[in-house]
Design a protein that fits this description.
A seven-stranded parallel sheet has the order 6-5-4-9-12-14-15, sandwiched between helices. Strands 1-3-2 form a three-stranded antiparallel sheet. A three-stranded antiparallel sheet has the order 10-11-13. It is of the alpha/beta class and about 270 residues long. About 5% of the residues have low confidence. It is elongated. Helices cover about 40% and strands about 25% of the residues. The two termini are about 30 Å apart.
C-alpha cells in the first residue's frame, strides 16, 4: 500500500511539472506569434487537443490570453478598454487592494495611480483622516463626499479609454506635495528591465508619483511579471514593496520585497 501511495504521489508531482512546462511553452508561443491554434500546439507538445483546450482555459482564467476559434490570442492588457480590463483577474485585484490598504495609517498622505487594482485599494482604504491625491476620476468619486478625506484631483488631459488624467497639468498638481505612500500601477515588470509602461505620458506620471513620496508600492497581479512595455518607469531597486497575488522567485532574487495577498477563502 505504501509503495502504491508513493507512486501516485510521484505521478501527481510529475503531472504538475509537465502541466507547468506545457503552459509556459504556450505562453512563449503566444508572445512570439501573437496567436496559437489548438491543433498546432497539440502536435508540437504531443498531447491531445482536449489537453491543450484545458491549458488554454486555465491560462485564460489567469488573464494571460483570450480564447478564439480554434486557439487563442495574446491579451494586450494595457491597451484594452477600461471595462474589459476591470474584469480580468478581478478577484486577484480585490485581494491586492485589500492587502495594500493595510499599509496606510490614519493621517497619512497617499498618491493613488489610476487603474482597476488601485480602485480596489481605494475601496478598502478605511483609515481616517486621510489625504488622497489621484489622477483617476473613478477613485476621486469614491471620496468626493467623505469629509474626513482631503481630496486632490490631478486633472490634466482626460484619456477616456483609460478613464485617467495625464499630461503637464496633472503633473503640476504634484508640485509641493510630499506623500507617505505612492501606490503605482504596473503595466509590466521584469527582472532585467525593471518597471515599464505602455504609454509615455503614463510612464511620466508613474515616475513623478515615486519622486513625491517617501515610499513607493507597486500593485501588480502575476500576469504582469516577466513582461516588457516600451516606456521606462523605474528600476526594481527603487521600489519599496510589490503587492501582488502570487510570489515570484526571480523577482525576489532581485531584492524585491513582495507582499502577497492571502487567497480568497470563498474561491478556494
Amino acid at each position: 500500500m505504501q509503495a502504491r501511495s508513493q507512486v501516485r504521489w510521484f505521478t501527481a508531482i510529475l503531472g504538475r511539472m509537465f502541466t507547468e512546462e506545457r503552459r509556459q511553452h504556450i505562453l512563449s508561443e503566444l508572445k512570439a506569434q501573437g496567436r496559437v491554434t489548438v491543433a498546432d500546439l497539440a502536435a508540437r507538445l504531443t498531447v491531445s487537443e482536449d489537453t491543450v483546450r484545458r491549458d488554454l482555459r486555465a491560462l485564460a482564467s489567469e488573464g494571460y490570453l483570450q480564447k478564439a476559434h480554434g486557439g487563442a490570442v495574446l491579451l494586450d492588457i494595457p491597451h484594452l478598454p477600461w471595462q474589459t480590463r476591470t474584469q480580468i483577474l478581478s478577484d486577484s485585484k480585490t485581494r491586492i487592494g485589500q492587502r495594500a490598504a493595510q499599509l496606510v495609517e490614519a493621517g497619512q498622505v497617499v498618491l493613488l495611480d489610476a487603474g482597476s487594482t488601485q480602485l480596489a485599494l481605494a475601496q478598502h482604504l478605511k483609515v481616517r483622516p486621510l489625504t488622497v491625491l489621484t489622477n483617476s476620476l473613478d477613485i476621486a468619486q469614491l471620496f468626493a463626499d467623505d469629509e474626513q478625506v482631503t481630496l486632490i484631483l490631478a486633472a490634466g488631459t482626460w484619456q477616456p479609454s483609460h478613464r485617467v488624467f495625464l499630461g503637464e497639468t496633472a503633473l503640476q498638481t504634484l508640485a509641493g506635495i510630499r506623500a507617505d505612500w505612492a501606490f503605482v500601477g504596473v503595466c509590466a515588470i521584469h527582472p532585467q528591465t525593471g518597471v515599464t509602461a505602455a504609454n509615455p505620458l503614463d510612464a511620466q506620471w508613474k515616475r513623478a508619483l515615486s519622486q513625491h513620496a517617501v515610499r513607493t508600492a507597486l500593485l501588480a497581479d502575476h500576469s504582469k511579471f516577466h513582461q516588457l512595455a516600451p516606456y521606462f518607469v523605474s528600476e526594481l531597486n527603487q521600489i519599496d514593496v510589490l503587492v501582488t497575488d502570487q510570489p515570484d522567485d526571480t523577482l525576489q532574487a532581485c531584492g524585491v520585497q513582495m507582499l502577497c495577498a492571502p487567497p480568497n477563502e470563498t474561491t478556494r
